[in-house]
Amino acid sequence: MRCRHLNPEHPEENEILVEGLEREVVMVQLSDTHLPAADGRDPHPARQAAAHFAAYFQQRTPGGAVVAEIFAGLLDRARQAHPDLLALTGDILHFPSVAGLEWLRHRLAGTDYLYTLGNHDWFFPYQTWSDAGRQAHYPRFFGLTGGNPACQVRRVGGLRVVALDNSTYQVSPEQADFLRRQLATGDPCLLLLHIPLATPSLLPAVMARWNAPIVMGGEEGWTAETRAHWLVGEVQPGTRACLDLVRQAANLVGVLCGHIHFARADELRPGCFQYVARPGFEGGCRRLRLKPYR
Ligand SMILES: [Fe+2]
Question: Is this structure's pTM higher than 0.70?
């Protein structure tokens, strides 16, 4: 399948020529808005989590603006682009409060979207970060993820958009199988993840910013201390299978992700780029225009 990324270096607007599309497809990607909405329905954790948010993210918004206003503005801007699909690539909420989920459901009404979860979406900072915590909070997201946050797919204009939850830095063998089946259709595919895939060109920038290789499949650069801090274990078989699929699948157009909080594009293999969006709390988003390759 022929595929050409015309301007991957642009941080916000990208064009891709894709063989096999039925028509032009417009996508808008939003990531890492870290909305800290909370009320009395999650009283104790919400107060702590809001304080945690104020200590870090609020100082990084443009002019100290409130995230809910930035987020609402980004959604308005996204709708003006008339996207076929809105890609929400995780850490959309800073924690899974009932108030945050309600705000999101209300704001997304009438928009076609795929939402893959980030490590913050399902985590209250007062809790211990673990896969068990993710599983415990999954039901809160069923209404926003078609009942299955782990694996989702949407076909639009001949493009198959696949979303996998890799917010523990791993995917399960079942998720890898799901991706394999989607790729086996032969459709041009686009993969949504929260955590970027390790690639040699990206790793130095991630190390410089975070002092740890906080990407999926990053095997070099960890220390015992950074592994303990980030709670990232060795690469598991499902994750390895997913990485192999991405490297080999000729019909994978690209990967959209977030997590590392800076805009980035890296070639995974000829014809396939991984795009990271500038975080939403900074006012960032990315628009992709995919056109039939003729
Ligand atoms: Fe984030």
Answer: yes
